[in-house]
Amino acid sequence: MSVVTNTTTIGAIEAPSRRNTELLLLAFAVVIPIFAYANVGLSIHGELPPGMLVYGLGFAVLSGIAHLVVRRYAKYADPLLLPIATLLNGLGVVLIWRLDQSERLRNLAKRSFGTFSESAPRQMMYTGLAIALFSVVLLVLKDHRVLQRFTYISMAGALVLLILPVVPGLGADVFGAKIWISVGGFSIQPGEFAKIVIAIFFAGYLMVKRDALALASRRFMGLYLPRGRDLGPILMIWAMSLLVLVFENDLGTSLLFFGMFVIMLYVATERTSWIVIGLLMSVGGATVVGMTASHVKVRVTAWLDPFACYTTSGACEQVGQSIMSFGSGGVLGTGWGQGNSDLIGFAANSDFIFSTVGEELGLTGVMAFLLLYGLIIERGVRTALAARDPFGKLFAIGLSGAFALQIFVVAGGVMGLIPLTGMTMPFLASGGSSVLANWVLIAILIRISDTARRPAPAPAPSPDSEMTQVVRPS
């Protein structure tokens, strides 16, 4: 005797979205900057800042909006990216407000420009615009693979963004670097957005050409050297980065673009030879430009021995002050609002804002910030590994590599490890272009991670499997 039962197919198990985890982490990311803001006010003025409630509520509302957008339109996205970016952005506003309270910077601005205006309110406004742009990207960009259609258009767009700062009447020369354009009284740094646009081109191009670029013609000293005609792409990017460096005096952007391409090229081809060739070309190009371009030569001189030209060069004075800031911070720092990094001058809240971290929060604070940046990079790399399509893998690794290179060149420059580049510390430094571009970068990584972690749809039921006879012995 036997029993016949009917069974049906079972659908895919729903994966956890981790949005509640994100919300809990986001609460900490909002509370920590508010406590830091209160600490700065008590340290400098002996009382809580008057705008503490408005700042706290405004920051909480902006963070809540970003979370709701992610919860609704990127349900399976990585739960760490948004809270870490929020924490860094909030602490950046606090650091900028702390420098706004400096009497030295106030008097310097009045002597130079006749008036002084605080940068923290503008940074908070830029943060609101950045959150709005972050939401728009997630609303409009339903699938990151759509960007692959614009591979060569993005190359043209990146070139336009790089050329704009040297257009007469549009570009602006700020402290020797031609990386800004002025439109209607507002200054924009196109290079911050160009790094995202050109990553689209690199990902789309390498996805198609990676097989040809991976071929090797000969083996030399343990390395597989590429064919001569396959060196064309890297030579083109190398030449473009040198042109940016020569015409715009922008060491940071040229290093960022070339480094990002080499990283993506290595990931696409898995050939170590590309890394070696890229390093040799970058060192050669930097050496030639460093010996010929006056602006770069000054920064190299300040890097080699800032105290030898301390009284005769502004770059040497800035680097020297920055090194002394890190040195006086020690392990635990002098405390919020108790440092003298404002001696650096106008660059204290932009290029050298990390010096304030080193002095007032010490080595502990520096390592904490670098750990937060490292987590963003790690989550970006993890997203690249989880992505199911080659374009998404290359795009995510390109954005993560660009973010990592920017952290390295900025932190290394202010610490005296490498020459100054003039780039801004993501989320910390004052400036609308930087905060807008980096929030767009986070939005794209969230979109790719959502696609990568989204569970695959259950297969369509088959008529033959819906009524399956299972015979069980009685």
TrEMBL record:
Pfam families: FTSW_RODA_SPOVE
Lipid bilayer topology: Multi-pass membrane protein
Signal peptide per UniProt: none
Domain of life: Bacteria
Compartment(s): Membrane
Region (Disordered): 453-474
Keywords per UniProt: Cell shape, Membrane, Transmembrane, Transmembrane helix
Entry's transmembrane regions: 23-40, 52-69, 81-99, 123-141, 153-172, 192-208, 228-245, 251-268, 275-296, 352-373, 394-418, 424-446
PANTHER family: CELL CYCLE PROTEIN, PEPTIDOGLYCAN GLYCOSYLTRANSFERASE RODA
This protein's name: FtsW/RodA/SpoVE family cell cycle protein
Species this protein is from: Streptomyces polychromogenes
